[in-house]
Automatic annotation (TrEMBL):
Species: Talaromyces proteolyticus
NCBIfam families in the record: quinone_pig3 (TIGR02824)
Keywords attached to this entry: NADP, Oxidoreductase
Name used for this protein in its record: Quinone oxidoreductase
Domain Enoyl reductase (ER): 12-330
GO MF annotation terms: NADPH binding; oxidoreductase activity, acting on NAD(P)H
Source organism superkingdom: Eukaryota
Pfam family, any one: ADH_N
InterPro entries according to UniProt: ADH-like_C, ADH-like_N, ER, GroES-like_sf, NAD(P)-bd_dom_sf, Quinone_OxRdtase_PIG3
Lineage: Eukaryota, Fungi, Dikarya, Ascomycota, Pezizomycotina
Length: 333
């Protein structure tokens, strides 16, 4: 048996989270059993807790998709270049809110000494999602401009750093507080950030670009930002939709004409439902492009706060508050 975070009644608010006792997983073919040292929180965890996130069929019921830890054993068949005792971090279909996790070695990464357990646990989901959106789906090229909505979220913080390193001409962002705007402009060095509570971000970006617009927009909001995304898109621009925090039903009066006249491509994408081979390719991209920059500190993992395993309720409440800049991580002592 092992400790894991459960949900009383199967779904509910943060107060329904508790430390449960469940069976320790047994690694299957091509899997490693990892003793978890830390795990990262993601917005999908909030949706799953409320019973609003459709789980892929291979996912365990308990939450958590990113973690760091130590390899304890292996299932049968291939283990790539991993061995017992290796310090690793990785991406999983679920089950990271626990003392142990069984996960495919295709989604494990050797943890460099330059990353703490807490930092490493905050890398997989966010940096792989950002890489996927920017390069694989968004087809970002050096010299182009990019707009990151929810700019102080972990994925956008990762993506902003990736875009800078890849030679972005200009990087714009939106956020909901003066503190976040200052963080984005002064700490991350975006070209300009706009407060969606006090500014018309669409009009401001069109003004900042002289009406040319942005080549690529990464959006987590959905319906309420759809018109603005079309308005600020450059000719042959792309919009990558990663979330629906603002709903999935378009408001009345949305004008889709820019889709045609500016030849805009809008594409939605998820990561968790992708197969292992697809995720493995993204892992390899992370290892080859981002890992060296973590080691030389070009890329930073921004950890907002670290909680103990038993403080999972407080951790979820903080994530729900939308006040954070970076990752929330729990450590398993």
């Amino acid at each position: 048996m092992m400790r894991a975070i459960g949900i009383r009644g199967g779904k509910g608010p943060a107060t329904s989270l508790f430390v449960d006792q469940i069976a320790k997983p047994i690694p299957g073919a091509g899997q490693a059993l990892v003793k978890v040292r830390a795990f990262g929180l993601n917005r999908m965890d909030l949706l799953q807790r409320e019973g609003l996130y459709p789980l892929p069929p291979q996912a365990p019921e308990n939450m958590g998709v990113e973690f760091s830890g130590v390899v304890e054993s292996f299932g049968p068949e291939g283990h790539e270049d991993f061995k017992i005792g290796d310090e690793v971090f990785g991406l999983a279909y679920g089950g990271a809110y626990a003392e142990y996790i069984a996960v495919s070695t295709k989604m494990l990464v050797h943890k460099p000494a330059q990353l703490s357990w807490e930092e490493a646990a905050g890398v997989p989901e966010t940096w792989i999602t950002a890489s996927q959106a920017l390069f694989l789906i968004g087809d970002f090229q050096p010299g182009q401009s990019v707009l990151w909505h929810a700019g102080a979220s972990s994925v956008s913080i990762s993506g902003i750093q990736l875009a800078k390193a890849a030679g972005a001409k200009a990087i714009y962002a939106t956020a909901g507080s003066k503190e976040k705007i200052e963080f984005l402009e002064k700490e991350l060095g975006v070209t300009a950030a706009f407060n969606y509570h006090t500014q018309d971000w669409s009009a401001e970006i069109q003004k900042a670009t002289g009406g040319a617009g942005v080549n690529l927009t990464i959006d987590f909001i959905g319906a309420t930002y759809f018109q603005g995304n079309l308005d600020v898109a450059a000719r042959d621009g792309r919009v990558v939709l990663l979330g629906l925090m603002g709903g999935g039903k378009l408001p009345d009066g949305v004008n889709i004409a820019p889709l045609l006249f500016k030849r805009i491509r809008v594409e939605g994408s998820t990561l968790r439902s992708r197969d292992e081979e697809y995720q493995r390719k993204l892992r390899d991209t992370l290892v080859s492009h981002a890992l060296p920059k973590f080691c030389d500190k070009t890329f930073r993992v921004f950890v907002e706060k670290v909680f103990r395993f038993e403080e999972i309720e407080q951790a979820h409440k903080l994530l729900e508050s939308n006040t954070t800049k970076g990752k929330i991580v729990c450590v398993v002592e």
